[in-house]
Every structure is written in structure tokens, then in C-alpha cells.
């Protein structure tokens, strides 16, 4: 086999790896379940970090690539999950899940101490419950002195492969103490919640890489001159992998739903002002060469649907088939949807009508957000749909019928791994940028065209 570049994506449910050739073709892929320790109501679920790193190594090993053929490895992950490197070893923590309540008191403390508006403007709206500062501060509260350097999953795995410590700017924003526009940590926030003894990793420029020099790197098939790059946060990296270009918007349908658009430079100030009015809007960094990225992501449709399905004997497929067509049932009360996101099934009737109302609620929220985000950022081009939510017939039909503009569906099957591999390939000069990686495909879907939407789903998933 010729040399390959590999993308690896740490997700909430699975850790995926995929190898790509110079022509952009997907050559091999693998996936393992993301280790998770179910928690109690007060602690929530936790990700055992060392087990997650072992699972990542397993996902790479399952590619069964000949020794020395991996030229570059790109890493992507969910945001805040990580551990501390101290004395040459990584702490074996169960890190609180992003969707749990651990860290709520830390968020409240920061808001009380600095003010919501000041935090929003300084950190791009990232000093919130899902941030590293909230989760880590909440987890370590009452544990006594902990020292070392915080490393997210990508940083920890990169350290295992290279022996070097660094962070990528997009993932740094998820710390809740990083200015995505100025490019600096706001250490006073970190220290305010008792984390002064935990150092933050240095943030390197986009595309920074380090040589893979460890024994683990050799065992996993990385060549002697292979480069390891932290590609970035999963949604932005997946946007790159889906082939979304600056000027377009991406809408990722999954456990969490994120709508993303790169900010035109002349629109930066209005976007920063909008942060103060909408806590669902945040700023990150475009992982393919830099630039400010606007992300609107307060919706958690996958969590709400999971709660709904747990309270009914019907399957998703049965509910999709029995549900009224889009727009023909009342939209679900937002308070009920939010309660479902938080695991509260008390209002779930289990009926196909309520299932339709739940889906339509999320689709209409997304349609309005796409329009608003395009006007705000100057990215008024095509909206590209991605994500596993397109498997649901009822969900994708709602997007086709309720959207107010034509759509496109990316037919890239694993956008996260492809985006990470694309960034890795640009590091070793296989292509000038991740956007130039061959192989991104999409199908245009005119408004209301259900047949075309289904064709796009078949092209993406092979069925449906």
C-alpha cells in the first residue's frame, strides 16, 4: 500500500479512524465505542480518559495499515474532555460528560465575578457549562491541590505519539478562557475558580505539527518522518471534511446540532455584538488556515430524541413512518423539548404525532438560525447538511419541506475523519489546504424535493 494520511475523531459515541490516499479516496476505516462510565444523577456520565486514549490507539490499529505508511495523522475531538499531564504521566480521570450538570456552580461563580457580557465578549461566549473551566473546576472542587498541564483528548494523544505538548486554537476556545479573536488565554478566569496550579497548553498556529517519535507511534504504523497535527474541534473539522467552503453554511444534524459559518472580516464587529444578545452563538477558529468561525449551537435534538425513544415501545423507524407530514402538526412547546434534552421524559406521550412535533420544532429553529447567521456573518451561500440525523426519513423530509431556501447534502460519509485527514495532508504538502483535498461530493436539494433528499441520503448512507 502507498503512503496514506489518517484522520482520527474522538466522538461522544464512537472514536473513528480513516485512511485516505493522495487522490482523496477513502481506503480504510474503523470505529470503536467511546468508553463511558454511567454516573449518578449528581455526577452525570464520565469519560475515562486513559481508556479513551487506548480506544483511539485501537481504532488506528484496526486500520491494519502496513508499518510506516502513515505520513500524517490529524486529530479531532469533542471539546472539553481531557486530563492533566504531571510528572510524565496522564491522570486517569473520568472526565464529566459535556451534557451533564457538573460545573454548574463554576459557571455561576464566573458570571457573578465577571459578568455575562464581559465573559461573552472576551471568550466568544465559551465560558459556559460545557467549557473546560467549568467541567474541570467542578470536578476538582474539594479534591485538594492538583498540578500539571491540562491536555484535551487530542493533546493527550498527540503527547503520547510525539512527546510534545500543545493545543489548537479552535479547541482552545472550548476551554472557556481563550479569546478566539485575540488568540490569548484569559488566565485570570482560570485562576479565579482555583485552577492556578494547572497550566494551560501553549496554543500553536493553524497547521502546527510535531514529529511522531514515540514507540507507540511506531507500533501504530506512523512512519519515521510522520507528522501529528491537532486538527481541531469536531464540528468545525467536520465542516471542512464535508467540503463546506467559506461563504457557505453548514448544519450538522446529530446529538448536538451546530450551524456554522465563517465570518467575513468586515462583519466581525456585528458578530461580536450579537454574542451579547444570543448565548447560543459562539466564536471559534476556522481549522483550515485560520479565520473567525461563528457557531450557533444551543440545540440538542439527539438527546431529546433519545429521551423520547426511551419512553416508548416504538422504534425510530416506526415513528418516522407513522408521523404526520412536516408542518401538519403543532410545533412542540420549547420547554418540553428542553426538558427532553435534559433526560426528563415526564411529558413524553410516545405518539407519532408528538414525534413529528418534536422534529418540526428543531427544524424550524434551525431554518431561522441559518437565515440569521447568514445575514450576520456575510456567509449567505448554500446551506450544506451533514450528520447522522439524515438517516431519519421524517427529519430529512422536514428539512426539505420546511426550509426556505435550496439545500445541499454532503455525501461524505465521515466528515470528521476526512476533515482531520485533509488538514493533516496539507501539513505534508499533499494539497495546498484541506479545502483542496479531492473527493468532497454533495447533492443539491431544491426546496420541497423529497425524492432528491432521499437520493442524497442513499448516496450518503447506502440505504433509505
TrEMBL record:
UniProt keywords, alphabetically: Carbohydrate metabolism, Kinase, Transferase, Xylose metabolism
Domain Carbohydrate kinase FGGY N-terminal: 5-241
Lineage: superkingdom: Bacteria
Transcription found in the keyword field: no
GO MF: kinase activity
Record carries keyword Transferase: yes
GO BP field: D-xylose metabolic process
Segments forming a coiled coil: none
One Pfam family per UniProt: FGGY_N
Family listed: Belongs to the FGGY kinase family.
Protein name according to UniProt: Sugar (Pentulose or hexulose) kinase
